[in-house]
Structure formats: C-alpha cells, structure tokens
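Aim 2, interim progress: modelling of the pyridoxal-5'-phosphate-bound target.
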Amino acid sequence: MKLYDVYPIFNLNIVKGKGCRVWDEDGNEYLDLYGGHAVISIGHAHPKYVENISKQVATLGFYSNSVINTLQQGVAEKLGRISGYDDYNLFFINSGAEANENALKLSSFKNGKKRVIAFRKAFHGRTSLAVEITDNPKIIAPINANGHTTYLAMGDIEGVRAEIAKGDVTAVIIEGIQGVGGIDIPDDGFLQQLQEMCNATDTTLILDEIQSGCGRSGKFFAHQWAGIKPDIITQAKGIGNGFPIGVVLISPKYQAVYGELGTTFGGNHLACAAAEAVLDVMEEEKLLDNVNKVGAFLMSELAKIDGIKEVRGRGLMIGIEFDRPIKEIRSKLLFDEKVFTGVSGTNVIRLLPPLTLSMAEAEEFIKRFRRVLGQ
Ligand SMILES: Cc1ncc(COP(=O)(O)O)c(C=O)c1O
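Predicted structure of the complex, ligand included:
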C-alpha cells in the first residue's frame, strides 16, 4: 500500500530530536525554529517528558472514560493554576480541530443558535465544523459547506455587532494570534469589545489558542495580553509536546450534561502523562520568562536586518514578512544552513521554536539567517 499523497514534503527523514535540535538519518544536525509546527513546547525528548510517559505506559497505557482518571484531575488542576483559569472546567479531546468542534457544539447546545462569526484568513482545523469556519475554500468540501459561517475582517467590530443583531449567531471564534493566516495579532481593544458584545448578547466568545497557547506568546494564552476572559478556550499542539491532545476550557456558565460530549481516547493516561510533564517543566524551567526574553531578542535582531518588510509577533510566535516569495530563502535555510522554519502563505516565514530556545541558539539562528540573506 502507498501513502495517500496529500503532503508536499521535504526530502528529509528526521529520526532524532533533543531540545531545539533534530537530526536526519545521515546524522546531519538541524536547528529547529519550527517546533514541528508549533507542537514542541518543552523541547524534543525532554527527560521529564520521557520519564513520565515511559513510566505511565509501563503501568497503564489506557482505560476508558467510564472510570475515575486521577491523572485528568491532576492536569486540570495544574492547567487551571498555571493559566489562571482555575474556575473553568476542562474537557479532553485528541486534536485542535476536535477541540473547536466541541467548543462549537457546547455553544450551540447552550444558546440554541447555529451561525458562527469567524475572521478572514482564520484557520481552525479540518474536521467538519472546524473546516467550515476556516477561511480557505480550497479545503472546504461541498459536504462541509453548510452556510454556518460569516467571515468578517479582523477588527470589524461594527460588522460583528450587525451580524449578532440578526439574532442567529451562536459564537464568535478568533485565534489568539492568527498562525496560518500570517502571524496577525488581533488588537487588544477589539478583543475587549468582542467580549463585551458577546457577554451582552449571550453569544459565545471562543478563543482558539491551539497554536498561540501554552506559553508561546509569552503569556500562557495570547488573549491574556488583552486582559479578557473568553467563554471557551481551545488548546492543543504545545500542551502535548508531540503527544496528540486537545483541551477545551469551559467557563462555569456552562452546565455539563451527561453524554452531551464524549470521546474514546481524549484524556487517556498517556496523554495526561505528557501534558503533566509539559506543565511541570513550564513552571520548573520558568519557560514564560524564557519566551519573553528570547522572543524580544529575536524581534530586535530581525528588525536590524535589511530587506524585510515587517517583523511581527509575540514571544516565540514570530512572522517575518518579505515583499517577495520566501520559498528560496526557506529552502536555503533548511538545506544550506540546516535550520527548520515554518511558512504562512507565500511571503511570510514563521518562527515557532520550542519554548526552551536559548539565547545562544537564537544568536546562532540570526547568524545563519543573515548568511542566507547575504548579510
Ligand atoms: C489556530 C489553529 N486552530 C486549529 C488547528 C487544528 O489543529 P489540529 O491540526 O490539531 O486539528 C490548528 C493547526 O494548525 C491551528 O493552528
């Protein structure tokens, strides 16, 4: 059997990772400024992570959600404390898209409505509702195009007001920082107005922190820069450091009903062991401080480089926009300088390194990047 060929891949077989570095099968070492698409938070093969998962798999790899799972309770407690959301409730699932699906279901169960407001260039995942609220017609199959979504420009608060006034909007969903869309940060004031408007109209405000959460922006959630407290927050990627896990943080306004949501694998013992290690390491190694320090250094060094149109982002979620396609720059970075980076669209290089990136590694990246640009 062959693989279903949907991924345009680099001809590289990565076989090992440690910290912020990965190695290919020929032993070449790469600096990882991509984190496997914002997934690696505490670094590849962190000893605490390896120990937690190894111990757990040797003890109990899986049991179902029909029995007590104290590991889930432990993760909920830690996540609540570290994120500042200890009054919220936690639902476990397996991926980002599923987290958004469940957030939308909760919203619709609560207020009985069906339409969603999402923003231009938004990416929320590829399952049925998640893809329907994603602003990319190429990945929305006819079976998913059910007219649930109205897309507005980010910042268009009057547009949001007018749509909500029609009476059928269940939720407004917005990324803490748009990732796939090109590292676009919603204005603090816009987020604050959204929250006010949603509160006043029983519309659910959902913050998709799947990429921007778990400390990547320098606060636990990117929306915390705006001082808001949304109704529902979705998170995945970094919380598992590579183990598939998604979570939905739910305001106490929502009353759980038996059977309303459910999953076979969500919150399984191994996923919890992974998340627990991530949260412990974030605290023990003060990763938020590191993200702020190293992120600020990268932003200031990047701003000194000629030929870049704009550098934007927060913490270790950084977009470097050129006024031309970056395909060749990215390819030179990877093959000549051995640096993994991400991309948004055609002109933006996306940096999403592990949150453990050191100052020395950041300096090394800047040196290699300058070499590629001939500076
Ligand atoms: C903001 C955002 N939401 C949702 C998703 C979907 O997550 P997953 O691929 O885990 O389903 C992603 C993935 O890139 C994302 O960046």
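Residues 47-284 form a domain with the Aspartate Aminotransferase; domain 2 fold (CATH 3.40.640.10). Residues 95-97, 123-125, 175, 179-180, 208, 210-211, 236 surround pyridoxal-5'-phosphate (CB under 6 Å).
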